[in-house]
């Protein structure tokens, strides 16, 4: 979908596109910007029917906290008519304040942690080492 100019009076093309052909799964993340403008960028991505990922929304905030996430989720809820989040799934890593903001803004959404971030780095390393040992035993048998 390409648009040449978007104004406040423009029809809600993206909302119709999102509602018609996209999965009810959203991925939320935040990253620190360390350049000239020190801030945090919050993003939400979605998946279409062909499993292609696309950027739904982004925002620049002063810091990663419950208030910033709540503000961002409120705007997203309004723009996409998410209401209370029923039927939607949000996937994220363990962002500061995000869980509380999700519970406040989208109380009926299903929230899952990204599998890679579900455990701490040390727990992940221990699991990998354990798996390597088991694979070695399997090869030796």
TrEMBL record:
Q: Where is the MULE transposase domain?
A: 26-119
Looking at the record's lineage, which domain of life comes first? Eukaryota
Matching entries from InterPro entries are given as: MULE_transposase_dom (IPR018289)
What is a single Pfam family found in this protein's UniProt entry? Answer: MULE
Q: Which PANTHER family match?
A: MUTATOR TRANSPOSASE MUDRA PROTEIN, POLYPROTEIN, PUTATIVE-RELATED
Q: What is this protein called?
A: Zinc finger, PMZ-type
Q: Which organism is it from?
A: Gossypium australe
């Amino acid at each position: 979908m390409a648009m040449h100019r978007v104004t406040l009076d423009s029809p809600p093309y993206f909302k119709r596109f999102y509602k018609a052909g996209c999965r009810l799964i959203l991925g939320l993340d935040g990253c620190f910007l360390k350049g000239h403008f020190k801030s945090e960028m919050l993003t939400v991505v979605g998946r279409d029917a062909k499993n292609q990922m696309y950027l739904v929304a982004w925002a620049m905030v002063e810091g990663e906290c419950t208030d910033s996430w709540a503000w961002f989720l409120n705007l997203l809820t309004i723009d996409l008519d998410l209401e209370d989040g029923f039927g939607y799934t949000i996937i994220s890593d363990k962002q500061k304040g995000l869980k509380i903001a999700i519970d406040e803004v989208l109380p009926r959404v299903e929230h899952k942690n990204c599998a890679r971030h579900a455990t701490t780095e040390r727990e992940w390393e221990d699991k990998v080492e354990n798996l390597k040992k088991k694979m070695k035993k399997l090869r030796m048998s």
